[in-house]
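Re: the multi-chain job from yesterday

Posting the exact lines I submitted so nobody has to dig through the queue logs.
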Amino acid sequence: MVPVRWFGVGHPLLLVVGVADGSVLVGVPALRWISQRPVTELASYVSLPLSGSDMLSRLAEQVGTASTARLATFRTCHRCDAKQPPEWMLDDDRCQACAEADGVVF
Ligand SMILES: [Zn+2]
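And the result, structure tokens for all chains:
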């Protein structure tokens, strides 16, 4: 298998783009915590060959699809009213920043 070099896009992380020999991959990230360390995994991805006159339009379409899928996982913090990625939420109600402001120690 050809190694893939992955690059994260956005803050918070919105999607990942991988470059491999002859193809580009567009993925939806899924982050989880191992103790205090975030680990990035792939919820899904598509591989596009780096060829064809429509390559850029296919790439743009997949970037849009992945971004929409990732944004669909964001939740609203009921304290600060901001939409946050799931890995930044303490629970269904509060993001980690609000929880910390409320005295939660991580
Ligand atoms: Zn918050």
